[in-house]
Design brief:
Blueprint (H helix, E strand, L loop, with lengths): L4 H33 L2 E8 L10 E4 L4 E4 L5 E7 L2 E8 L6 E7 L4 E7 L18 H4 L3 H7 L3 E3 L1 H6 L15 E5 L6 E5 L8 E4 L2 E3 L3 H4 L5 E7 L18 E6 L5
Parallel strand pairs: 1-7, 11-14
Antiparallel strand pairs: 1-4, 2-3, 2-5, 5-6, 8-13, 9-10, 11-12, 13-14
């Protein structure tokens, strides 16, 4: 059977277009491969303010819908990110989330060192709803709290978030620095005066010659008062003599 001229021309056209289609597919695959090779990698470490790894923290690439979990060393890695500016959030239960924008160059690895601050107890006085307990109020705690001079961490707040060490209750108070001791376990507490100095410590109203972390354990803490300057120290703690400030710790002997 004879092939029509139209069929002949169509076959010729197909023969001509086939190599072009094959070439287009090859070019598309090459472009996709190039795009993949130009993807960026974000890696880094998530730690607390003392340099300890925050295991199980989550790092999210908000714009790209990708997330990863921090490992036991505090490290994370997010591969395959589109280059350009991108917003990320690092978070963990008990800590304030951190959000940041990073410009990711193509075909690169960016390392990020992230530090998260603890939520900490709610600090400062509560003039409307101050804590009240007969035994603790007998020390003047409630009255001083209502005067709104210092920072107060009442028993409700201690019980909501118990700490292993007494010094950890002070983390997050403005003007108070809590640093891990270089020589071993525990923390050093200083007030941000010029020069920085260690506060005087009272335990159950009695002057102590120990540091905050050595005076009592975190498990023994029932409530705390913090006075950051000499002028704010109440008469109740005037036995401190010359001091840059006071941390008054009330122990569980006052617990209901």
């Amino acid at each position: 059977m004879a092939i029509s001229s139209w069929t002949s021309r169509a076959l010729c056209l197909i023969a001509l277009l086939a190599p072009l289609a094959s070439q287009a597919r090859a070019q598309s695959a090459a472009r996709a491969k190039t795009a993949r090779s130009q993807r960026a990698v974000l890696t880094g470490r998530v730690r607390d303010g003392f340099g300890h790894p925050l295991v199980s923290a989550v790092v999210v690439a908000n714009d790209q819908g990708v997330a990863t979990i921090v490992d036991d060393s505090g490290l994370f890695r997010i591969p395959g990110l589109l280059p350009g500016p991108s917003r990320f959030t690092a978070s963990r239960v008990g800590y304030e989330p951190a959000t940041f924008v990073i410009h990711l160059p193509g075909d690169s690895t960016v390392f990020l060192d992230i530090h998260l601050e603890p939520n900490g107890p709610t600090l400062g006085p509560r003039p409307v709803d101050t804590y009240s307990d007969v035994r603790l109020d007998a020390t003047g705690f409630g009255e001083r709290q209502r005067d709104m001079i210092g920072y107060f961490i009442d028993p409700d707040r201690v019980n909501r978030k118990p700490m292993a060490r007494a010094a950890e209750y002070l983390i997050g108070i403005p003007g108070v620095s809590v640093h891990a001791r270089s020589g071993g376990a525990g923390y050093e507490v200083t007030f941000a005066l010029k020069p920085p100095c260690e506060p005087t410590v009272f335990v159950d109203g009695v002057l102590s010659h120990a540091t905050v972390d050595d005076a009592v354990s975190g498990a023994d803490v029932f409530a705390l008062e913090v006075y950051l300057t000499p002028s704010t120290v109440p008469d109740r703690f005037s036995g401190a003599g010359r001091t840059c400030g006071v941390v008054a710790i009330w122990t569980r002997r006052y617990a209901p």
